[in-house]
Amino acid sequence: xxxxxxxxxxxxxxxxxxxxxxxxxxxxxxxxxxxxxxxxxxxxxxxxxxxxxxxxxxxxxxxxxxxxxxxxxxxxxxxxxxxxxxxxxxxxxxxxxxxxxxxxxxxxxxxxxxxxxxxxxxxxxxxxxxxxxxxxxxxxxxxxxxxxxxxxxxxxxxxxxxxxxxxxxxxxxxxxxxxxxxxxxxxxxxxxxxxxxxxxxxxxxxxxxxxxxxxxxxxxxxxxxxxxxxxxxxxxxxxxxxxxxxxxxxxxxxxxxxxxxxxxxxxxxxxxxxxxxxxxxxxxxxxxxxxxxxxxxxxxxxxxxxxxxxxxxxxxxxxxxxxxxxxxxxxxxxxxxxxxxxxxxxxxxxxxxxxxxxxxxxxxxxxxxxxxxxxxxxxxxxxxxxxxxxxxxxxxxxxxxxxxxxxxxxxxxxxxxxxxxxxxxxxxxxxxxxxxxxxxxxxxxxxxxxxxxxxxxxxxxxxxx
Length: 465
Ligand code: PLP
Description:
Blueprint: H1 2-7, H2 23-30, E1 38-42, H3 43-56, E2 60-65, H4 72-81, E3 84-87, H5 90-98, E4 106-108, H6 115-123, E5 128-131, H7 134-143, E6 148-153, E7 160-162, H8 172-184, E8 188-194, E9 198-200, H9 204-222, E10 229-231, H10 249-262, E11 270-273, H11 277-280, E12 284-296, H12 301-306, E13 312-317, E14 354-359, E15 374-376, E16 384-387, E17 408-413, H13 415-421, E18 434-439, E19 442-448, H14 457-464
Parallel strand pairs: 1-17, 2-3, 2-11, 3-4, 4-5, 5-6, 6-8, 8-10, 10-11, 13-14, 17-18
Antiparallel strand pairs: 1-12, 7-9, 12-13, 12-16, 14-15, 18-19
Helix pairs in contact: 3-4, 3-13, 8-9, 9-10
The structure holds pyridoxal-5'-phosphate.
């Protein structure tokens, strides 16, 4: 069943390489834990997403947004690929610095920071910080006077699935005052930043924001700041399955044209971005098991069914809102092009289909995967549902409410990630992580890191032989 679950995802041929196979995987397939929810993560895919980003916007340096997926494996591969990192808290700073990443490759991009986290950044040489208020400037002046600041601008982000501008960003009108306040406090503002909201649906959102940043640069120069860095944030769509593709010409064309117009190369402004979802969306496929099932009939329901009416089937899954399906977009059915393709049963596309409510495992009634019902064939307890494109804002947002643990992540790597990681395989891993090491197209073994012990590169090399 599990094999067919993964193999069943036919619309993405690349993912078929991840089918569990070989001797090393048999214990996973046969283990007791097989009924628990899990994710398959493809470390090699990070290299191709990085390449795609750099090809689309070669003038922009990506600073990966750690909040999107903070797996140590992800951070390690991206560090080896040479990305920078966007951190939002001390813990994220610690994670990235702990991998040996130079502080100059980090931006602390949270405009509202606790004083103690600012002090941590100062002590560890992380200089690039964002701000959007006078109060934040006062804090930075006190705790990190040597910071290099980017003024975060409010954007028009209605075109994004997750707008954030009500919470963060200064209005263009407020910028003049903020820039002079920074100067009066002896702080260096070195540029501007914005964030168009996650899963932005149109590149035109960037055009206006980039034009606004040009105004901020002019104001900044007027206030005596050396404006040299533009941060165009994240928000780039990541999915291969639905929605506009970033790689489509319109995205790179529109953003590049806006940059060429307002920040032509000869001005020497360094342009950075903070992509998260773009790198991570397709990184994971989630497998979720049906643990209970119930048919709900309205009054007179059986009679209605006998006359061709239908019951609503309620399925209780072992992952949900408090696990990998936290983020609201998972509740937007439209996010999925074809929910049927995610059911693992061979007959998944065969009618009859029933309206179904998909619940998570906790005792919270709002713990649902979708706000709306979905139409599925009748399924059984023990069946698996497979959800691709589950790498962004899933594991990083999950918790163990009601004692249901977050899904185990089963990492796979091919020769690309293998070569990138090299001897750096001694990682401070969380417990219980599993990795299937794949080299030259072969699965070598499955290794589980046990509590307290480090991952040993020797064991990997043994496996390679
Ligand atoms: N930058 C900032 C400031 C953010 O708040 C976020 C996400 O919330 C990101 C970057 C990453 O955004 P995305 O995953 O949409 O690329």
